[in-house]
Amino acid sequence: MLRPPRLRPSFGVESKRESGATTLEPADALEHFDEPETDAAEELFRTVRDLMIRFARTPRKTADVVAHLKVTPPQAKSWLKQLCDERVLDKRPKPVRYSVRQNGLFDKGSK
Question: Which of 7, 54, 73, 108 has a CA between 20 and 30 Å from the CA of residue 28?
């Protein structure tokens, strides 16, 4: 019994082989996607920071952040820790909640 040919996912532009069969080869136009991953990660985190500044105007639990951003708990915790380290958010104890930091006159980071 003959099986149909296996299809492999591929991105690119079509080209013709000598046999006349059409295949997909990598597109030269996609080369600009080879930029460092840190740029994408930094852009993503800037977006998360902006979203959290709006979302955490009232204290939010980690589970609230997970549901709002639709990410895994470890990812949310990582971003929340980074936002606290940057003094964007305050972490409140028992129950743990996060809210936008209110800069006071005597905060070290205020100008």
Answer: 7
